Amino acid sequence: MNRPDVTESKPPLGSAPSRSTNSVLVGAGLFMMSLVSAGQALLVVFIVDKGLATDAFFGAYSVYVPLASLGIALRTSLVPLLGRVESAAMFRTRASELISRVALLGTLVGCGALAASWFLSGLLTDGHSHGRGVAWATLALLMPAAGLQIAAGAIAAALNSVRRFSVAIGCYVAAGTVALGVSAAMLTVIGIVGAAVGLALGAALLWGALAAYIKRFGVLIKPRLRWLRDREQWVLTWRLVAGVALSASQQIALVIALTSLSAGAGAVTLYAYAYFVVGLLLNLSVLPVAVVTLPDLIDELSRSGAPAARRYLSFVTPYVAAVLIPALLGVVLFGEPILRLVFASALGTDDAAALHETSSVLGIAMGFASIFALGSAVIASQRRWSIAVLVACLSVAINMSLQARFGGELTTSAFAQAASTALVTLLLLGAIFGRQTPRVVMNVARVSSPAALFASVTPSVNR
After folding, report:
1. Under 8 Å CB-to-CB from 126, ≥6 apart: which residues?
2. Where on the phi/psi map is residue 51: left (φ > 0), alpha (ψ -120 to 50), or beta?
3. Is 31 buried (19+), middle (13-18) or exposed (0-12) by CB count in 10 A?
4. What is d(CA 331, CA 270) in angstroms, rounded to the nearest whole number?
5. How far apart are CA 200 and CA 170, in angstroms?
6. Dihedral sign from CA coordinates of 248, 159, 381, 276
7. What is the dihedral of CA 244, 245, 250, 251, to 10 degrees?
8. Measured distance CA(300)–CA(149) in Å, rounded
9. How would you class 349 by CB atoms within 10 Å of its CB: exposed for 0-12, middle for 13-18, buried for 19 or more?
């Protein structure tokens, strides 16, 4: 296995931690973010009973997730647009304009989604009066928050481009912690909508903290409505949509799965929790690697071209597999008693068992999703926007087809999502590597095999 020949350049904003230190800091930060997210989910489990209101909340939340994920995806997808930054003056100029233009788009997205919130609430709840009221209130709070998340993602991308990873991730952790505290207080006062209040406040604090920090370096955020008439603004919009299309398609897959469920009250909640459980493992394995190595990948692609993409996958996949595969196997083998301990008192023993079964099946999807995420980083670094959009559209179409044919129950919907993720991952690798795709797939399997072997042998040794 060849290690990418990447020399870290001096960041334009002064000294920054090394790549290895940044990896640890980002990994720790993402772990803290995951714990905060887990706390948010557990609050809903223990404070609010499952039923129509809870399902309505999670249905509305599933609309917020792709939009908020758009902001999170911008932390990496915008880095190639900033390019190689060689001086503080260059950084100020590029970052000021790019962040301002993205903030304008975030405002439009938030306002547009807010205007459609009453219509969406009806679709999500089939017109049930109480459920629709909860869904509408949740959407009214979370849609503006989604706009703030998009704008905050642009600032985080600017900081990541100059390797200030720890500052960006630290702001996300701090804002998430505040959101958790507010949600805990408001849930006991106004019910399930209190969780949306906390999330909205957390998004506002995140935007404020990141904007205040980057302003120290002379970056000014001044969106202008006249930009809507500029061709450059719409070219940027296209590139933003293309840049996040792949990651957004995976979140849309969750929405499709949730809307396809017909297993009765509480099914949406159980599926959302199962997705969260396995998504937590993905956050702890592939995201730290993808975030920290992206600036180096951009530099290497500019020097070496296509061969750099193959070396990148060979280099990072073992690190991802070493965390993800044993963790997924642990969920399958040992997850049920843990989930019973955590969730049974709120969901019931049968529901906890169904949660474990659904999580185990979705674990298959997460294994393919890890390779999909790394491939998405390569596509973004190559700026192959049309390919990204095409694969994303195919992803949505395939997922809709499989869910319509096999979905409806918790387990069948999970299998449909896993099959869709596997097919789309192969399509993405094919778009990147063409005829060399079989060789790349075999190489990915080879470098992942030590982690898979370790994960499969360890339970037997422990017995």
Report:
1. none
2. left
3. middle
4. 16
5. 18
6. negative
7. 70
8. 30
9. exposed
DSSP three-state, residue 210: helix
Strand extents, DSSP E, 56-144: none
d(C-alpha 169, C-alpha 161), whole Å: 13
> Which residue from 224, 257, 259 is spatially nearest to 104, judged by alpha carbons?
224
SS3 30: helix
Q: List CB contacts of 414: < 8 A, sequence separation 6 or more.
A: 257, 271, 274, 358, 361, 362, 365
Question: If you count them, how many residues does the chain have?
Answer: 463
Alpha helix ranges (H) inside 225-266: 231-260
Tokens of 262: 């017909």
Nearest by Cα to 337 from 351, 352, 319, 320: 352
Per-residue pLDDT of the chain (463 residues; tens, 9 = 90+): 344 444 444 455 555 555 556 666 676 676 677 677 767 766 766 666 556 677 778 778 878 877 887 787 788 777 877 766 667 787 888 888 889 988 998 898 888 888 888 887 777 776 565 677 888 888 889 999 999 999 999 999 888 877 787 788 888 889 989 998 998 888 888 888 888 899 999 999 999 999 999 988 888 888 888 888 888 878 888 877 777 788 778 778 887 887 777 656 567 777 877 887 787 777 666 666 666 667 667 667 666 666 777 777 777 777 677 777 777 777 777 777 777 776 655 566 667 778 788 888 888 888 788 788 878 878 877 778 888 888 888 988 998 888 888 877 888 888 888 888 889 888 888 888 777 778 777 766 765 655 455 444 444 444 4
What does pTM read for this prediction? 0.70
Cα 425 from Cα 447, distance rounded (Å): 17
Question: Can you tell me the distance from the alpha carbon of 194 to that of 182, in angstroms, rounded to the nearest whole number?
Answer: 8
CA distance 439 to 295: 26
Q: What does the DSSP assignment read for 145-206?
A: HHHHHHHHHHHHHHHHHTT-HHHHHHHHHHHHHHHHHHHHHHHHHH-THHHHHHHHHHHHHH
Q: How far is CA 446 from CA 90, 123, 318, 452, 453, in A?
A: 42, 46, 9, 10, 11
Q: Where are the domains of the chain?
A: 21-229, 246-454
Residue 5 dihedral angles phi and psi, to the nearest 5°: -85, 85
Find all residues with CB under 8 Å of 16, minimum gap 6, and list them.
22, 162, 163, 164
| Type of residue numbered 172 | Y
Q: Two tokens at 50?
A: 């499952």
